[in-house]
Each structure stands twice: as structure tokens, then as C-alpha cells.
Write a structure and sequence with these properties.
By secondary structure, the protein is mainly alpha-helical. About 70% of the residues lie in helices and about 0% in strands.
Amino acid sequence: MTTGPARTLVRLTLTNRVSVAYLAVVAVVVAKAAADSPAAAEGPEQDFAWLWPPLVTFPSFPLVAALGRTAWGTTTGPTWSFAAVLAISALLQSLALGTLAQAVRTRHQRMLHSC
């Protein structure tokens, strides 16, 4: 029985152990940043809390952010664009990790069956 591409995409992105662990780390980092930066905070240290979420999603964050800036045509997009870029970057990273985990698992199974 073959699965459809949408089901495979969801399985690789959201339902394997590696992807779930990565998305949990991203959620914890975002929750910590939200808790550490109250809306009424003033001063230069208010922005450092939101430094960590892009770093956790780093390899895909700059690419997705650049695409977003290109789509909006400005250097600053709407206020929701940071959250959207962060979510899309986390899902892309999760997909990459899920694909890598499946490839390693498949290769390991092939090696066991060939012996």
C-alpha cells in the first residue's frame, strides 16, 4: 500500500521522533522568548530575547526571511511576518530532519538485511 505525497509530507514533518523533538525545542525557545520580553519592556535588552528563535531555525530562517522581504518589496514586512517566517523555517527544518532520519533508518535496515 502506497501513501500519498501529502501524507508522506505530514509524516516526515510532524510525526516522527526527530521532527517532534526539534519542534518541541523550537516551541520552548519561542515560549521562553515570549516570557522574557514583556510588551512594555524598554531598553536595549528587550530585543535580545528574540535572538534565539531565529538561531534555532538558522539554516532556513535567512532564506525564508529573504523570500518574505522580496515578496513584500521592503526591508520590513508586516508585524506578523516574523512569526510566519519563524513557523515556516521550523517546519522546513523539521521536514529536512525527518527526511534525514528516514534515510538513515532505511540505510540501516538495508545493511542489516544484506548481512
